[in-house]
């Protein structure tokens, strides 16, 4: 089965037979898959009144364990976005009563973000639906193929410097 990237590669091979465009096939497919997945996830969260980045913060707080509290700096590190982006996300989540924000009593220059009861209930509900959607998005791959793809992507990400801190 061919995809749209195959057409691009065929054009390069026809126009520049001296080049091997195969890296474009890998990177192009990863990029297109990422955009398609992001679109589906964005729409999924929007139907529930959230942006993807807001869900990321809620999920990060939830999986951190009770008391579901992290510093804003820890959230910046886990989300790989700027502190300004985190601030805007937190503003929206505070307005929706999904998180609270307070000055850390032990470090006055640090802000602690805590999942509210309402936020915990919402993320617990959403994570089930989120996993169901992700299973559907991967349905064209069997379990062994999903495991193989996860391993290959892990190797790629490690090579690109995306390792646990």
Automatic annotation (TrEMBL):
Q: Which PROSITE patterns match?
A: HTH_MARR_2
One of the record's GO molecular function terms: DNA binding
Q: Which UniProt keywords apply?
A: DNA-binding, Transcription, Transcription regulation
HTH marR-type domain: which residues? Answer: 23-158
The regions listed as transmembrane in this protein's record are: none
| Statement: the UniProt record of this protein carries the keyword Nucleotide-binding | no
Q: Which InterPro entries match?
A: HTH_MarR-typ (IPR000835), WH-like_DNA-bd_sf (IPR036388), WH_DNA-bd_sf (IPR036390)
The protein in question is named: MarR family transcriptional regulator
